[in-house]
Specification:
75% of the residues lie in helices and 0% in strands. The chain has 20 helices and no strands. Helix 1 (2-34) packs antiparallel against helix 2, helix 18 packs parallel to helix 20 (378-388) and helix 19 (361-368) runs antiparallel to helix 20. The radius of gyration is 32 Å and the shape is elongated. The termini are far apart. The relative contact order is 0.04.
Length: 392
Amino acid sequence: MKRRIALAAALVIAALVPLLADEEAEVYRNLYREAEGLQQKHSAIQNLVGLKDRETAPVIAEALEEMLRTQNNYTTASEKELFARALRTVAAALGEYKYEASAPFLWMVVEQVKDPLARAEALMALGRMRALAYAERISLFLRDLNLKPADDADAGEKLAYGAIIALEKLKDPRGFSPVFFAADGWYSQRVKKQAERSLPNIVADPSDILKGLIDTEDPARKVMALKFNASSSAPVERKNAVAAYALALGHLKAPRDRAEAKIFSDLRKLALRSLVAYKSKDTGIVDGALASYTKGFDDEERLLGLTCLGSNGTDPAATALRDVILQLNKEQKAGVSDEVRIRMIKAAIENAGLTKNRIVRPALVSVASNDGNSGWSSSVILAAQSAMKEIP
C-alpha cells in the first residue's frame, strides 16, 4: 500500500512540474509585457532564460519580436549596450532550444541590428537550430564578408566567426566554399583556424567541391584545396580521385612565371604524396607520375614521381620504371653521368623492387649484370641485385 501511495504521489508531482513551469513562464511573460523600461525587460528575459525550460521558447521568441519592433526607442549608449546584451541572451537561448519558429526574427537581428556580437549570436542560433532555409543566405553573407576587409575589422571578424559556426552546424554543402575561402581570408588567425576546424564538419565527402576548387581557383588555393582533401572524411577511393585530378591538372596548366611554376610543382608533389599514402592502384596516374619524373620542377618532384610509380605497382607503372632504368643505363654506358642521374637510378631501382612486378626484371638484370664497362658504382649494382630478389 505504501509503495502504491508513493508511486501515485510521484506521478502527481511529475504531472505538476510542467504545469508549474508553464505558470512561471506565464508570470514572466506578463512581467515582460508590463515592464516599463529596458532594464525591467532585460531582467524579465534573464529570469525566463534562467528557467532553462524549452517550453519557455515561444515566450522568449515573443520577447525577441517585441524588441525588434521597439529597437529604435533606445538611443543612449547605455540603452544600446543593454539592448544588445538582451538580444544576445535571447538569441543564445533560442538556439539552445532549437526553436526554429523564431528563425525569421533571428535573421532580422542579422540584417537590422548594429551590434556585431548580437548579430553573430543570431547567426550561430540559426545554425544550432538547423534552420536550413537560411543556409544559402548565411553562405552568401559570409561570401560577401570574405571579399575584402570590413571597415570595422573587429566587427567583421565577429560576424565571420558567427557565420562559420552557423554553417558548420547547418551541414549544408552550400556552406563549404565560403568557409573554405574564410580559412584563407583577411581575418585573424582565430577566425581562419576556426574555418579550418569547421570545414570537415560541413560535408562528409567534399570531393566534387574540391575538384571544382582545384579546377577554378588560383594555384595557391588549388594547393589549399588538395591539402584539405587529406583531412576530409571522404572514402579513400574518392580522395585518390581528387589527388589524381590535381596531378593531371598540375601538368596541364602552363605557369606564368617561375614563382607560379613552383606552386604548381607543390600541387603535384602534394598529389603524389597523397597517392602514395592512399596506395593508389589507378593506372590513370602513371602518365602524371612519369611526367613529374621526366620534367619535374626539381629533384624532389622527380623522386616523388618515381616513388609514386613504385607504390602503384601496376603493369603500366612497372613498364614506366623499366624504361626509366633502361634509359639511365643506356646514358651511363654512353658516358653521360652525374650525381643526379646516380640518385635517380638508385630511386628507380628501389621502386622497381617495390612493385614486385616481373616487368621490371630485364631492366634490373641489365644493371646488376654489370660487365665493368657501364661505369655503375658497386652500390648501384648491389641495389639492382637486391631489388631482383624482391621479384617473384
